[in-house]
Design a protein that fits this description.
Layout: E1 4-6, E2 13-15, E3 24-28, H1 39-57, E4 62-66, H2 73-82, H3 86-103, H4 119-130, E5 135-138, E6 141-145, H5 158-162, E7 181-187, E8 202-204, H6 207-217, E9 224-228, H7 232-246, E10 255-258, E11 261-263, E12 266-267, H8 278-285, H9 287-294, E13 303-304, H10 307-328, H11 338-353, H12 358-374, H13 385-399
Parallel strand pairs: 3-4, 3-9, 9-10, 11-13
Antiparallel strand pairs: 1-2, 5-6, 6-7, 7-8, 11-12
């Protein structure tokens, strides 16, 4: 059966089509690398990791691309504060980010293009937008104003999206009067990031980099495009408008947005310092337990981070791991048939294929482990071990969590 996902564009759950003659394009918005990544970031990349694993296990070819935003105001400011260059800081934090992904057993994307390597392409995008007649200069900035669209067009209705924007504490919500406007070029000089252009030295608007990368590395529309829910507006709205203006089609066939992680009632964010670093969480409980905790809440629901809940998830994961590992351990014989493990593998695959139901998939594994514990002898039957191990390996490959 095909994998189904709830598309943010339509709000409907629908199958992910299998492209003919090419891999499925999966584009995930990556980090702005100026400080340590936190578990809120990790949760988003973790869900897309499980999506990629699920698609591959179900026979899809996948080409996974994730951008690295390596110049931006926050990078400039922190570099100045630290007495280094924006490029040196970005490279250092990019290495740390990749290390964080690897520590959580997240598959690295096939390509991780840096924004700084795509400036020439973004300059070309600005020039193409100028030809629409919808660009104006406002001081040191060049602004694109998207055309008004009816709310029925969903992702292209700025006033609708602005109402759902995720803002930082203390910041105003977007003004519907200017919701269709976004910056596409700004004059700026070193030591802040600065690149040559027909409009003088400066930087392209952040919203242009993903369109430029999708157009170059995948195709417009890309098959699946995703990121955290806080990117819906203005970032993904702006991407959509650029694609409609320059390619006469949406940026993606399907959007997938993960919900956010909150701590103490506030969104985790590097900008506010309200965060739990990935490396600290992995060091505390291990990759398997952290994945178990983060995947235990559906991707569409907020996760309220609690240290006590993480500890309970660690204990539960360790019990489940011990039960399944003991059952399929070499030597000894029990009465659990390999068909029971194969059935569990099918159930997990079905839950993940049904709108990425990680919480339901973990529930299946949890219940199975409890059933093993309830048996007088919960070991796999003699002669069935190889088939049982194969089934467990299939579950591990989809979830990215060691169970034996």
């Amino acid at each position: 059966m095909p994998v189904t996902l709830t598309d943010t564009l339509s709000g409907r759950r629908r199958p992910v089509p299998r492209p003919r003659g090419r891999p499925l394009g999966l584009y995930v918005c990556g980090p702005t690398v100026y400080n340590a990544s936190h578990v809120g970031h990790a949760r988003t990349y973790l869900f897309f990791d499980v999506l990629r694993r699920t698609l591959v296990a179900d026979g899809y070819g996948v080409r996974h691309v994730m951008n690295i935003t390596d110049f931006e105001d926050k990078i400039d400011q922190r570099a100045l504060d630290l007495g280094t260059t924006w490029r040196a800081l970005a490279r250092r934090e990019e290495r740390a980010f990749v290390s964080d992904l690897e520590s959580l057993d997240i598959l690295l994307p096939h390509q991780r293009p840096r924004a700084s390597d795509y400036v020439r392409r973004m300059v070309s995008v600005v020039r193409r937008l100028e030809r629409t007649g919808r660009v104006r200069r406002q001081g040191d900035e060049w602004i694109y104003e998207a055309p008004a669209r009816p709310a029925s067009e969903n992702f292209s209705a700025a006033s609708v999206l602005a109402a759902h924007a995720v803002t930082e504490a203390g910041l105003p919500r977007p003004d519907p009067a200017t919701a269709r406007e976004f910056m596409i070029w700004r004059r700026q000089d070193p030591p802040r990031a600065s690149f040559p252009s027909p409009w003088g030295a400066g930087i392209p608007g952040w919203h242009l980099e993903c369109f430029a990368m999708v157009e170059r590395l995948l195709r417009v529309p890309v098959d699946v495009h995703g990121g955290g829910r806080d990117l819906i507006y203005p970032h993904h709205y702006a991407e959509m408008e650029v694609a409609l203006a320059l390619a006469d089609r949406p940026i993606t066939r399907s959007f997938l947005h993960t919900s956010l992680v909150f701590q103490d009632g506030r969104k985790m964010a590097k900008s506010t310092g309200n965060l739990v670093p990935v490396r600290a969480a992995v060091a505390a409980v291990g990759a398997g337990a952290l994945r178990w905790y983060l995947l235990g809440t559906p991707y569409s629901q907020r996760l309220a981070w609690e240290a006590a809940d993480l500890a309970r998830a660690r204990d539960e994961y360790e019990r489940v791991h011990r039960s399944i590992a003991d059952s399929v351990a070499d030597g000894g014989a029990g009465r659990v048939p390999a068909t029971a493990f194969a059935r569990l593998a099918r159930e997990v695959a079905a839950e993940l294929g049904n709108d990425l139901g990680t919480d339901r998939a973990l529930g299946r594994v949890r219940a199975f482990a409890a059933q093993l514990d309830a048996r007088a002898n919960g070991r796999v039957a003699r002669g069935d071990r190889r088939r049982a191990v194969t089934a467990v390996r299939a579950i591990e490959a989809r979830l990215g969590i060691a169970l034996s």
